[in-house]
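Title: Prediction job returns without error message
Component: structure pipeline
Severity: low
Priority: P3
Assignee: unassigned

Description:
Job completed but the reporter wants confirmation the result is attached to the right record. Sequence as submitted:
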Amino acid sequence: MKPLVPLALTCLLAATACSSTESSSTAADTVPARLGQSDGAAAAPEVTVPDAYTSVVVNVSGDATAPFLGTDGRYHVAYDLQLTNTSGVVPATLDRLEVVDAERPNDAVATFEGDELVKEGCDYGDCNRLRNLAARPADDTTIPPQEGRILFVDYAFDSIDDVPRQVLHHLFVQAAAGPPAQEPSAVDYLAAPYVIDSFEPKVVGPPLEGRSWVALNGCCEPGFPHRSSPAPFNGRLVNGQRFAIDWKRMNDEGAFFEGDPNTNEHYVDYGADVLAVADATVVTTLDGMEANQPGVLPANDPKQRDSLTVENVDGNHIVLDLGDGTYAFYAHLQAGSLKVKEGDVVTRGQQLAALGNTGNANASHLHFHLMDGPSVLGSNGLPFVIDTFDFAGAVEPQQLLDTDDYLSGTFNGGLLDEAEGRRDQSPLLLDVVDFPSS
């Protein structure tokens, strides 16, 4: 089984150059052409690179991002690249991509090659980052003429002082070396300047309370649903769920349910209070969708999939305006539990609704993320940190992959003897955390 809820938007959509010796060696001293910044990357120093014919065009999907501190003590950066082979006749094969410091382009921050790009049979881990449009794993590293791919890029730094203000992307490809080319040649070049340190991640409070909450489908694993969720909305590829977390609760024995798994009320988290993470204004709500049968994903059920729309795929939900262009999204809420309406002003810690199993979900959980606009589908996700929680350990990924659609089993084997207090960090994939209780 893939971990908890396969991406709602993806399921809905499925249902409905210079030579290689020249580019790298002359990047710092060739008479340059000036590259503009990626959209949204404001106030960055101007970046210069040598002129080059670049048959594979590179664009960053989304606006500027920011490093966030994870529970591993490292500062994480995550985004997507769109690679387009503009040649009409010559295929392009991606051999390697290096992320480099824009001020020191010979210094690689991260490198992606080999199995990291494509590896058959790899369900999770640092693999299969190269995806077809939109987001299914590519069969190989070749991009046919006039086609595109997505590359999931993420890397981490030990210290915030190590994070460069801006990066470039150094492509090593077998591709058309010039407009007349009829066969691929080895070329490499710098492209796509991108600001990765343009703002501070939003600090929010806990969206839930109590012990033993598992960060299912958290950042930034390529093999898990939220990371693999770019989708075409409003004329562009967006990924509102890149930093999203599906929160699901265990009991003291490490089980997600007690008794009959076909009953929503038997799941430990069902009906839990969902809380405002900050003082905010309610922008949008949806209520009235009935609970799903546990173990059944509507997008995979012929009897239910046609009822999913872009409006209801996330079930009963709430969008909050946190100010400064940041919005919080809560999804899959229990029908009739919403305690707020559009225009209401809420305060941090206020109960908003009850955790449920609605929309495109196969089990109860709270889907939570921040985004850069009020549109659930048309906005990009934003990194965030939670100001207070205890880190209690982590669930082994293979356990989630091996379990059934009800999430049967116990998952507490990776818990610490004593939970550790954390401040202003973001829980990572499959972390187990304890939130303060009221």
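Comment from assignee: result matches the submitted record. The longest helix spans residues 8-15.
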